[in-house]
Write a structure and sequence with these properties.
This is RNA helicase. The protein is an alpha/beta fold and 195 residues long. The protein is built from nine helices and six strands. The protein has one domain: P-loop containing nucleotide triphosphate hydrolases (Rossmann fold, 3-Layer(aba) Sandwich), CATH 3.40.50. 41% of the residues lie in helices and 15% in strands. It has a six-stranded parallel sheet with strand order 1-6-5-2-4-3, with helices on both faces. The longest helix has 13 residues. It is globular, with a radius of gyration of 16 Å. It starts with a helix and ends with a helix.
């Protein structure tokens, strides 16, 4: 039911935010603060950030923790116990945010996510749909943000396709970027960094 999945995404507001590659961390902090995910006392706000590599997950988690955001990394190198601790932390509100790879996130049952951030763009449209589908569940409203730096424009066409299908607003600036973007790399690229 890929169709239905896309229909369900009407409850998700999708936005694209352009920034330079080295400004992504600052951008993430801004988005988290705005969405209430950086605030321990806001029990309702929970976030999920997607990175393309394990190393990036760990680096971003450390940075966010230093900035006072209670979060945990979830990826292939983390054992079952670590994952369960992260999930329980999120459920109980000790953790506000999980930073995950696509592969790790697939097996997670996470409820109540209000914000999804694509720190690195997904390698294909299907992954994008899976990522944003982690929020806006069960009739709740959700918000999904994709950070697009000069290195990420190849992913725009696919993301815009999904956004158009769900009647999202796409700015002329983004349309231009997508038009001039290089074609996406062959999907073998993701295999190199490993999930």
């Amino acid at each position: 039911g890929n169709r239905d999945e896309l229909k369900g995404n009407q409850d998700i507001t999708q936005t694209l935010q352009t920034c330079r590659g080295n400004e992504k961390d600052t951008a993430v902090m801004g988005i988290l603060r705005q969405a209430g995910v950086a605030d321990r006392n806001n029990g309702a706000a929970k976030g999920l950030v997607f990175c393309s590599t394990k190393r990036m997950c760990d680096q971003l988690t450390q940075k966010l923790e230093r900035n006072g955001v209670p979060c945990a990394a979830v990826h292939g190198d983390k054992g079952q116990r670590d994952r369960e601790a992260a999930l329980n932390g999120l459920k109980e509100g000790r953790i506000k945010l999980l930073v995950a790879t696509d592969v790790a996130a697939r097996g997670l049952d996470i409820k109540g996510v209000t914000l999804v951030i694509n720190y690195d763009p997904p390698s294909n449209t299907e992954d994008y749909v899976h990522r944003i589908g982690r929020t806006g569940r069960a009739g709740q409203k959700g918000h999904a943000v994709a950070l697009i730096s000069e290195r990420d424009t190849h992913a725009l066409r696919g993301i815009i396709q999904v956004m158009k299908r769900t009647n999202q607003v796409i700015t002329p600036e983004i349309e231009d970027l997508a038009r001039n973007a290089p074609p996406p790399p062959p999907s073998g690229r993701a295999a190199r960094g490993g999930p």
